[in-house]
Amino acid sequence: MKATCWMGPNKMEVTTVPDPKILNQGDCIVKITSTAICGSDLHLYNAFIPALEPGDVLGHEFMGEVVEVGRNVNRLEVGDRIVVPFPIACGVCRACKNELFSVCENSNPNAWLAEKLMGHSPAGIYGYTHLLGGFAGGQAEYARVPFADVGPLRVPESLSDDQVLFLSDILPTGYMGAEMCNIQKGDTIAVWGCGPVGQFAIASAYMLGAERVIAIDRFPYRLDIARERLGAVTINYEEVDSVPDVLKDLTAGRGPDACIDAVGVEGHSHGLFYVHDRAKQMMRMQSDRPIALREAILSCANGGTVSVIGVYGGLIDKFPMNAVMNRSLTIKTGQCHVHRYMKPLLDRIEKGEIDPTFVITHHLPLDMAARGYEMFNNKEDNCEKVVLKA
Amino acid sequence: MGTSSQSRAGGSGDSERAHTKALGATVRPRPSKTRPYQELADEDRGTGGESLANFLGVFSIGLGLAELIAAGPMTKIVGVEDDDRNRAVMRLMGVREIGHGVSILSKQQPATAVWSRVAGDALDLALLGRALANPDNKRGRTLFATANVLAVTALDVMCARLLAKQPETVANADADDDVIRTKRSITVGKPVSEVYAFWHDFENFPRFMRHLESVTVAGPQRSHWKAKAPAGHSVEWDAVTTEDRPNELISWRSVEGSDVYNSGTVRFMAAPGDRGTEVRVELEYKPPLGKLGSKVAMLFREEPGQQVQDDLRHLKQVMEIGEIVISDATKHPGPHPAQPDDEPVTL
Predict the structure, then answer these.
(1) Is A133 in Cβ contact with B339 (below 8 Å)?
(2) Tally of domains within chain A
(3) Which of residues A333, A360, A376 is at a domain's end?
(4) Smallest Cα–Cα separation from A190: which of A239, A245, A229, A228?
(5) Which end of chain B is less congested by CB atoms within 10 angstroms, N or C?
């Protein structure tokens, strides 16, 4: 089959590899119809997350048709049309029973490696480094899906691929980002990053009753989507001197009630802190640039919540813990527990409360995946979201 | 209640009285809830400074090898003339460094070995001081080397003092008789009776222990074990069950005269609040290449402590979901890209 392989920093190749097989008896094999490039794949593309090997098949947002099931699979049948959640979860461990699917205790075969770096191991994730299991990803023609009875969601034929594909990751991720803000009547929510996850966080904040959402980015086309399609108030951080000051002004000194970091490891900014972070990252003295996170903490209202859905891969410097502690802030974070949100969000799509297709700017054939990474990474041609058709 | 270390460890009669005073009867935990865990915590007393010592041991060997093999470049790095005499001194220092490293890594409690490293540092500093006195040398380089040696000296002193402070405990008493102890644990989401029963059937072991080929019952208290060894070989030994308390613990040891010496105990305790069963394995073994070999094996994930941890994780998977979870990369023992292939599962 054809598969999108990481061959080194900024080097993706679509090559022919053997077809996936059933390895565990709870697996199914899915023939992929649509798959997407995630913003977090760009962190791998740029090699900011450790433990990749040349030849790794990437991709964790995919859907398609079941073509084979393992002996122990009961709920799914060949021919079912499914969307696959990106965290791999066994469904029976204590974490899964508590609906903390992205920290499943059983799904990471390289847990020992993750434990060395993170203390404990999170769940395995498709195509997301050997630290998270070494599972082949879904930017391919076929994929092996472990625990087929637990994760995949059957979707109705009445909805197109584009309408349901993002249930695999970015829609639930944005939704969880907003949910973690525990939004109350009258709340103002600020969202750093207007990539697809940021857009879904903005949309979800409104679905959950926010009074006002303020969106922060530097690309006019992304801010346009947030403002025109979702009704956010937008700030281009390159055009203002201080984002926290503008936010203070917009909230008459209170600060946003909750702040969402939908940026993660590769934040951009201007000013001394940014130059310092960038330099340390280039010298490999620090793996992550927590610029958005710092701003979110400094901006957040006293007693408010900072919700982190941007991906971090290592250690960060100059973390304003004094602000977190002295101002009674709450930090909530996590890889999305996608399984929790798929069905309720599918219902919202069916009811017409949200149409996730608004983030898609490009459809490409799988063959052109490498070009898709390049465009998305360099923000060429106003690229917001690339969907690959297998 | 004498020494300060005892009062720090708690769990004694005195601290129970202290509980009585501080916490009301409705709040105070029953001693049976905390005492076994205090004992577990105390088992680790005496291990302070071990990983720092291991690091210094590996560092010594690395530096020593560089001084021995690349004596020429090393003399240039420290800023002295690259002549035969200086090279000879450098090689001598290299041999000394390697000696320190080996002696540190060969012991569980290498306080003396680390102090001897401090003495070695003093010698290094004296030599560097002499080099500084000679105006023909490159002073900048020598100063830089001196700064580095001073930094390592500080670490050495810190480590030696930490090791010297350790109380004599099971973790380090008679720890230098070539026996290595390791203990690992995991929580399995099944009731104690089920986990005990699964473990009690030794023939189940190869299902979750990747280094075992087979275990067969050879008598009422006797079993025959066959394990994979490097280069396609295998090792076999007989073991006897020395203690078996249902739903509590099982102990075993290899019979006398076996090629492989090991003994172990597995304990089962109900985890609090329906969290399943806490499984704890203590293993004692004589590594074929001694402590040094075992510490080197640790770097390659082949050290038994890591193996026990992997096996316990597999036990959890087998008990909770019925099989060991594998991925495209981990179906092979060595490095492999996360990409499907046509080879059979070899893990």
Answers:
(1) no
(2) 2
(3) A333
(4) A245
(5) N
